[in-house]
Amino acid sequence: MPEGHTIHRLARDHAALLVGRAPMLHSPQGRFSDGAARLSGRTVTGIEAYGKHLFYAFAEDLLLHVHLGLYGSWTGGFGVPPPPRGALRLRMTCDRAWLDLRGPTACEVVTPQDRDLVLARLGPDPLLPSSDAVRAWERTSRSKTPIGQLLMDQSVLAGVGNVYRAESLFRARIAPRRPGHDVDRPTWDGLWSDLVRLMRSGVKAGRIITTAPEHRPRRGGPVDPADAHYVYRRAGLPCRLCGVPVASSVMAGRNVFWCPSCQSD
DNA sequence: GCTAAATGTTGAT
DNA sequence: TCAACCTTTAGCT
Known about the structure:
The chain is α+β, with helices and mostly antiparallel strands. The protein is 28% helix and 20% strand. It contains 7 helices and 10 strands. The chain has a 4-stranded antiparallel beta sheet with strand order 1-6-7-5. The chain has a 4-stranded antiparallel beta sheet with strand order 2-3-4-8, with helices on both faces. It has a two-stranded antiparallel ribbon with strand order 9-10. The protein binds a DNA duplex through helix 6.
């Protein structure tokens, strides 16, 4: 399930399978039949991830824009694909591999101009080397909106979701409700570089792990999912650092988690 | 077997 | 601020 790290990993993996090839596209579910027909048989020239958006570039300036939303997922494999099951929005097949897309918020054929419009309303993505942290700082430092809400705003910062929000704020010892203008520049720079570090490791591992080894009950071997986070979805459980119960509330319609003792307003 | 919740966004109120 | 969108899964019975 998708925050920015998932999207960038998909772009990388799908590029290795598809770039230079001309896959066939189908929509067994029927909701993307027209789009699939327009793209089917065209050569894939590149795949781009920005924030939580994916753009598959096909020959002759047509792009497939995919946003997974909350439930969307890609699955895939090599060889002959299994018979379609359930609600399958899109299947792409080439000579050696297949990819299935289910439940996306967006799956549409767009032009390069459309893509530019999408990117224009996104803030810097910590996973892109070209991203400028100062651009996001200029937004947060002038805002009285809680920093926990600003981090989730894709026009401020692209690719951060609920897990990275909660975990990066814990690691920075900042309470989510602290106003944006009360996060000073050095603290912001630290938050940004921690997000870069965490999200890069998320791409590599294919999952979000934010706890340091010394803060996990069991060391060595693969990280138990129950030990991968400090506060996300740990409401009522003892803080891994101080033992005080982790708090949660709803902020702008999303659950947010923090340690009332380790993190300050 | 059923229900609620989920790493998200959009558009209406 | 809230419902709608869409699908899967965890946690119940």
